[in-house]
Amino acid sequence: SKKPRILILGAGYGGMMTASRLSKQLGYNDAEIVLVNKHDYHYQTTWLHEPAAGTLHHDRTRMRIESVIDTNKIKFLKDVVVEIKTAEKKVILESGEMEYDYLVIGLGSEPETFGIPGVEEHAFAIRSVNSVRHIREHIEYKFASYNGSDVKHDEDLTFIVAGAGFTGIEFVGELTERIPELCKEYDIAREKVRIISIEAATTALPGFDPELVEYAMNILEKRGVEFKINTPIKEVTKDGVLLASGEEIKSKTVVWTTGIRGSSVLEKSGFETMRGRIQVEPELRVPGFEDVFVIGDCAIIIDEATNRPFPPTAQIAIQQSSTLAKNIKALVHGSNNLEAFKADIKGTVASLGGKEAIGVVGSKKLFGTPAAAMKKVIDNRYLFLLGGLPLVVKKGKLNIF
Ligand code: FAD
Ligand code: NAD
After folding, report:
1. What φ, ψ does residue 276 adopt, rounded to 5°?
2. Is the ipTM of this complex over 0.85?
3. Where is the FAD/NAD(P)-binding domain (predicted)?
């Protein structure tokens, strides 16, 4: 009989790790594995704050997909997923369509704008190699613009980061490293440049350990970051941001990091979603579907300890890939004995730029150099899982201390 086709949408953490695990666990004759992604490269979303600020070249965060997967067992297709038609068991792609027997949805996230006017038109987002390359070039261009015109515009040198969650804080940290370099390159005094982190909640990094939050804010303030806490943004315009208080801050650069929602393909395809994400069954299937699995930022799983969804992280996506691969393997082999996903959260470590970072690992708080070293170990660990030691040597962060 014909081999069943396992179709994996998206080559992020979830999709790549699922493809890689399935290729190791299934024999050639068990199934056909097809991986679809809009680029022919895989990038590490968790590193994107660095190329966005310009502290790391974007090529360091990406790799050609066919250089890391087993192309004897996985067929890679560069295409854009447009819509999923579950009734017909097929996926509409930009340049064709493809049927599946088992589907894995790992299309990642999109920026959450909360419908705030002007965000889509006027703000930047840290979401892909293309988007962060744009941010880096834009920032540099603003430095050049400032000195390149006779009339000086302070808003050219005002950089606003909307949302002080982990993405916003990590990006601000990188900016504090990059801005002094740009000041030197463009002959601009550091005091001319403003970096403003604007957060709606009553603290930066809401929900995180307060002592570590304070540590992070102190470090960043010492490097010249202005925090505006308890300050929701209500509109973004071509001239800057409007705060809920009515105040306007002029800026030519607003980077929007107020959280994420699931890929819009899910809503478009008629799935029931919460903030664009699908709440999955414990075995990672879409309720009511035998053959559709969801992984990573597209999936919501409730943490029984808090009765709230686990935050969307690479850590969870990677962990889900082992349950998901096992479950698809079981189905392919004719078993209905599926495993429930169990999260094993190891902790959270966030970089603050340079040799500074904060984190909680197990029950231990880390800050400063040990935290920054741990961050690099985590980054390298993923490369090891995906491509073994050779990939760590090729793409890893080897200067740990
Ligand atoms: P992604 O890794 O985002 O991959 C989705 C893939 O799908 C991409 O390759 C994309 O090109 C592709 N795709 C999207 N739409 C289509 C389409 N229509 N057609 C074809 N292909 C498509 N998490 C942590 O655990 N630790 C961290 O330290 C951490 N740091 C972060 C730092 C930053 C700056 C950011 C932005 C996020 C960070 N996260 C971190 C969160 C983490 O990056 C995400 O949770 C993780 O990337 C989710 O994995 P995923 O596989 O669901 O999606
Ligand atoms: P987030 O949801 O964690 O944080 C968004 C922040 O924006 C919140 O603090 C929120 O109060 C604020 N905000 C919302 N609306 C606002 C408004 N109108 N004006 C001002 N502020 C507003 O989102 P994120 O930081 O993008 O992170 C997304 C996911 O990725 C999270 O699960 C996070 O844990 C994960 N992540 C992890 C790391 C790490 O582990 N090092 C790094 C980056 C991201």
Report:
1. 75, 5
2. yes
3. 5-320
